[in-house]
Amino acid sequence: MAWFLSNRTCLKVPILRLAAKCGPIGVDIGDDTLTVVQLENNGKSKGISLISGDSKDRPEDVKPGSSDWQIWAIEAIRELTSNGRFRGRDVIAAMPASGVFIDHIKMPKVNDDKLQDAIFSKIKQKLPFEPDDAMIKYIPTEADNVLVIAVERKIIDRHLAIYEEANLHIKSIAVWPVALANAYTKLFGRREVDIEAVVMLLDIETNYTNVVICRAKTLLFARSIPIGARQLDADEIVTRLVLELNVCRRHFGSMYREAQIGRLIFLSGRAVDRDICTTIAKQLEMPAQMGDCLAAVEMPVCGDDLEIDRRSCQVNWATAFGLSLL
C-alpha cells in the first residue's frame, strides 16, 4: 500500500506499523547515496538495536532518475540486502528530496467532503510538474496549518518497479520529513520534556540540506535547501546556508506565532564535519546537539557481513533509520 494517493484521493492515511519487534528494512534512495537499514526493539536500555545496514554511492556517470540509474538501484539493493543479516523482505522506502514538492498552506474552511479538492486547488499552480500527474499527501499540523507533499506519479511508479525487481515487498512509500521526525522522536526525543519541545532538525546530505521543524512526531515545517556537505568547505557557502535557514525560521514564525524553536539537532552524524555544525549553530545563535544515529542504538558484534564501523563511518543514516522505525 503506497503512502501517497492520487490528487483526487487526498486523504489522511497513517503509516503502516508492524507488530513484530523487528522493523521493516528502511531504504533511502537519495540522489547520491543508497542506504539500507533494519532495526529492532530489544527491551534494553537504549531500546533499539541495529540488525544490519549498508550503503552504496551512486556512480558519477549514472544520472539520477535515468534508466541506467534504475538498473543500478536494483542491483545495489539486491547486493546490500543479500548479506544474510536482514530479516524478511518488507520495505518502507522514501522518495529522494529532489523529487518531492512541499508547500505550507492554511486549512481551507470547507466541508470535509470538499477538503481534498480545496487543498489541491491551492497548490496545483505551484507544482513543478503537470497537476494531473501529481500524487498528493496532506498533513494537518497546528494553528490551522497544513503541510502538503506532492510527487510526480511516474517517480512513484519508477520506485515501485525498483523494489519489485529487487524482490522486496514494499509496505509503504514515505517521505523524508516523516522519516526524520520519526528518527528524532525514537532516538533523541524520548524524554518527557521533549514531547512539547519544538526543534529544528538538520539533515545535511551531499548536495542538499533537509530541514524539519517538529514538535515530537508532529511535523510543522519542512524544506529542502540545495546546499550540502560537498559545498560547505567554503565559509561563504556556510553563511549562505545559514541565511536560508533563517528564512525557514521566519517562515515558520509567520505560520506559528505562539511556537518557539528550542534547539537545533544535526542528524547527519559523522557524515558532516563537527566544526561546520558548530559554525552553523553559532551563526544561528541556537543551542544545538549532534544526533548520531549509530551512537543511539545497540550495535551487533561486528562480523564479516556487517560493514559498519561506528567510529569511522561517514554515512548519513537518519532517513533510513527513521523509515525502519516507522
Describe this structure in words.
- The chain has 7 helices and 14 strands.
- It has helices at 67-80, 112-123, 153-165, 176-187, 235-255, 274-284, 318-324, and strands at 5-6, 22-29, 33-41, 48-57, 90-94, 100-106, 134-140, 145-152, 169-174, 198-204, 209-215, 218-225, 261-266, 288-290.
- The protein has a 5-stranded mixed sheet with strand order 4-3-2-5-9. Strands 12-11-10-13-14 form a 5-stranded mixed sheet, with helices on both faces. A 4-stranded antiparallel sheet has the order 1-7-8-6.
- A hairpin with a 6-residue loop joins β3 (33-41) and β4.
- The longest helix is centred in the last third of the chain and has 21 residues, at 235-255.
- The chain is globular.
- The relative contact order is 0.18.
Short key terms for the protein model shown above:
single chain; 326 residues; alpha/beta; five-stranded mixed beta sheet; 7 helices; 14 strands; 29% strand; disordered N terminus
Would you tell me the overall average pLDDT?
89
Backbone shape: globular
Number of strands: 14
Number of helices: 7
- Structural class call reads alpha/beta
Euclidean distance between termini CA atoms = 14 Å
Please indicate the percent range of residues in DSSP E strands (runs of 2 or more).
25-35%
Spatial extent as radius of gyration: 19 Å
Largest beta-sheet details: 5 strands, mixed
User: What low-confidence regions span 5 or more consecutive residues with pLDDT below 50?
Assistant: 1-20
What spatial order of strands do you see in the largest sheet?
4-3-2-5-9
Helical proportion, percent range: 25-40%
Q: Which H/E pattern describes the elements?
A: EEEEHEEHEEHEHEEEHEHEH
